[in-house]
User: Fold this.
Amino acid sequence: MPAEAAPDEEVSPRPGSTAYREFLADREELLRHKWLLSERAGRDVGLESALLDWVDHHRNAMRKKRSK
Assistant:
């Protein structure tokens, strides 16, 4: 059983791992979504706003699509 990380210790996936590839794919989709929302709004909507919208409306569909 792997030891738990200390609360102040950062745990990050290894490059090339499935988790890391998922993170990179999600990040790319999120940044694209932020750009589209900002273009529509005529201003920078900010990363937090784009993230919340993306998670609420798109993340699950994107993950299902990638897993097929």
Observations:
- The mean pLDDT is 82.
